Amino acid sequence: MNMNFNFNNPTNLIFGAGKLNDLGSELLAKKNSGKVGNKALLFISNGTSVKKYGTLERVEKQLKEAGVEYAVCASIHENPSKEVVMEAAAFAKENGCDFIVALGGGAVLDSSVAVAAMATNPGDLWDYVNGGTGKAQPLVNPALPIVTIATSSGTGSEINCWGVISNHQTNEKIGFGDPSIVPVLAIVDPELMKTVPPEYTAYQGFDALFHNTEVMISNGINILSETIALSAIESIAKYLPRAVWDGNDLEAREHVAYGSTIAGITMQLTNTTAQHSMEHAMSAYHHNLPHGAGLIMISKAFAEFFIEKHACDGQFIKMARAMGIPDADKPEDFITALMKLQKDCGVDDLKMSDYGFKPEESMTLAVNARETMGGLFLSNPCEMTNEECAGIFDQSYR
């Protein structure tokens, strides 16, 4: 076991049911200490849920109590695009916003990192993106401070400095971030997640699960990332089916939210693997594919690739035990646990063909995954060629 790690996260994380009620006092304290300003970009999606269920109204009330002015920007969609990020950044500039309050799920939280950077920096987002056609330039100016309020359990972006953005012109979906853009405040209130529909509860929950399972098989695993990743895997595996089938089950929501937020921490300690690069390629070409659904589709074949190579048998056994097979003694037990969890959550019949994929796309997706986010391939526990990567897509196709 690698005993070395480097963890630095200045985010004030407030976790628990009802904690949204602490937003006003926390913002006032942050404002008085100079960590946030006087006017916020209140950043939400183009959907209706935060309005329909009163969450937006509650946040607006908290902002007013803290003496914070705000301008609402409701433009972010699933698999957010570069163009929408640039529009939101321009909106922040036009309205004189000096920090961001990101209220929403993964798309909003991911996008807030890019918007915070582009609201203060010249040029185009792709000037600063590493990978693919990105120009990999350093940021010129500090980004706007970010406050995150998570309304779903999936990405862990509420507590880290990364977001994934799509460039539809080039068919690229690439992670963008900088250590300087870590949120100053994150509120994770599981009560806000009770209204997420079952289908998306499952997709988001599996995204959180795979963040942790990929960390577990990464060649950068260390004693701290393994310890907390296993804790998160256990919580998600035990409670996600309950959250899917009864959204009002607050105990289940709490545990899944815990697993998701912990993933945001594990990913700061240890990179995920090519499974995420591969799914980003999938949704770069098929924009209607939910990220979590894509991950589920390729998960079995992806794990089997490393099991067949005996690349990290012990890690798969540890995860199988955490997922409810206490006497697991072979890596294949992880596949058994994973398939059972997918069935229990009603997502075991997802088909790539239902989202427009064709078998002949496999190599295109494999090459795209490596060209755009090739760094995650370096975290795999053993080498994976483009041909082998395409083979995983082939095996996953139905």
Structure description:
- The chain is an alpha/beta fold.
- It has helices at residues 23-32, 49-52, 55-65, 82-94, 106-118, 198-217, 223-245, 250-269, 274-285, 291-308, 313-322, 332-344, 362-373, 386-396, and strands spanning 12-15, 39-45, 69-76, 99-104, 146-150, 162-167, 172-177, 185-188.
- The strands form 2 sheets. A 6-stranded parallel β-sheet has the order 1-8-5-4-2-3, with helices on both faces. The protein has a two-stranded antiparallel ribbon with strand order 6-7.
- α4 (82-94) crosses α5 and α9 (274-285) packs across α13.
- The relative contact order is 0.12.
- The mean pLDDT is 96.
- Report the span from N to C terminus: 38 Å
Spatial extent as radius of gyration = 20 Å
**What's the number of extended β-strand segments?**
8
Uncertain stretches = none
Shape descriptor: globular
Strand order of the largest sheet: 1-8-5-4-2-3
**Describe the biggest sheet?**
6 strands, parallel
Helix/strand order:
EHEHHEHEHEEEEHHHHHHHHH
Q: Structural class from helices and strands?
A: alpha/beta
Compact description:
With 398 residues, this protein is of the alpha/beta class.
Key features of this structure:
single chain; 398 residues; alpha/beta; two-stranded antiparallel ribbon; 14 helices
Layout of secondary structure:
Blueprint: E1 12-15, H1 23-32, E2 39-45, H2 49-52, H3 55-65, E3 69-76, H4 82-94, E4 99-104, H5 106-118, E5 146-150, E6 162-167, E7 172-177, E8 185-188, H6 198-217, H7 223-245, H8 250-269, H9 274-285, H10 291-308, H11 313-322, H12 332-344, H13 362-373, H14 386-396
Parallel strand pairs: 1-8, 2-3, 2-4, 4-5, 5-8
Antiparallel strand pairs: 6-7
